[in-house]
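Q&A log
Question type: sequence-to-structure
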Amino acid sequence: MPKRSLKGKAGRLALIHSLAHIELNAVDLTWDLIGRFAHVRLPRSYYDDWVRVGLEEAKHFAMLQERLAKLDATYGDLLPTTVSGRQRRTPDTTLLPALPSSRWYSRQEASTSRHR
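Response status: OK
Response body:
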């Protein structure tokens, strides 16, 4: 795969967009860790720490969004060049959410209540 150049506006845009993607994934992961263990009795500090981290990562994402706006762009404007060797045809913003849907939780709850 050819490397993207970091020179010029297009290169800066690609780099900042990539960093924003990383930050948004970090936000998703922090909230996933909170939601995934919400039913487990953990120390309050566990949740407080992950909320703090999630808010910090959201701040980083917002700062990168502001920088993208100065380049007349927004997150989701660029597509990854390839996914599994194929050209990707959907924007980054269609990636799966970090948390399963509420229907998934309902099925899990029904499944675990039958085994109690």
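Response note: The two ends are 52 Å apart (CA to CA).
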